[in-house]
């Protein structure tokens, strides 16, 4: 055989073996993209993002292996969410997971009626217009509700036991949060039954938070409920520090506040909420229709007391409160 023919033969035989892997790679479908939209920040939710990814793994979706995530964080600035939601729609995302409460979910819902949405919210999604019902959501959205916004009266009651002789209790609200006025109304109703007066303070910027605590100190408010909303969550260390520096006993809505020095927290286990959000996102990626997936209600509640903070504030924690606590930080 002539050398030229041999080279041609070898080259012709080798070409398919070289080209086949390239062609096979080209034919592999691209990994689905999850759009992750949060009203909070990456820094204050890193442990919750890990819980979300654990939920995805329960549906066999591993980030970087067979799914990717595009993150958008509004840092508590709700007006940024609509543009971020539109970015995720244009990708396009295969599904949009929204966390950090109602502002994220509502922005995603306004941005698309076709891309599936899995939300984690703190109130009734039917009242928010996210779903048609709890059992049969209809449309393109479903998810997890924690009803944490409706627990403010419970937090007020726990704080009342801490300061049984108080005539007034303060509440810090974010006026930009859609549930703020209903939170206030719920607490005012509960306060009347306890013969308490509610003093409301409002803040939706760092400067307004500072001003609110100056007013709280000036008016000698004996105790404070910090209402549940994503903006406050992105500033939770600042809020805890201000409560400590102004010697104001306060209660918050999730355990991270108490872990970082807040006096008490009562609310849901948010790691479980985010895990369930990941589970539902995985189900949707596998083909489940959001409109047919019932909205789940998270039900793992936690009451946490920080005794170290109580001692620093000179507050006596009753035996009854201690008996109710799921965790006591010493």
Explain what you see.
The protein is an alpha/beta fold. It has 2 domains: 33-147 and 269-300, 3-Layer(aba) Sandwich (Rossmann fold); 149-268 and 302-329, Response regulator (Rossmann fold, 3-Layer(aba) Sandwich). The chain is 44% helix and 18% strand. It contains 13 helices and 13 strands. The strands form 2 sheets. The chain has a 7-stranded mixed β-sheet, sandwiched between helices. α5 (152-162) crosses α6 (180-193). The chain is elongated, with a radius of gyration of 25 Å. It starts with a helix and ends with a strand. Residues 1-27 have low confidence and may be disordered.
Mean pLDDT rating: 90
CATH topology name of the largest domain: Rossmann fold
Coarse shape? elongated
Main β sheet profile: 7 strands, mixed
Overall structural domain count? 2
CATH architecture of the largest domain: 3-Layer(aba) Sandwich
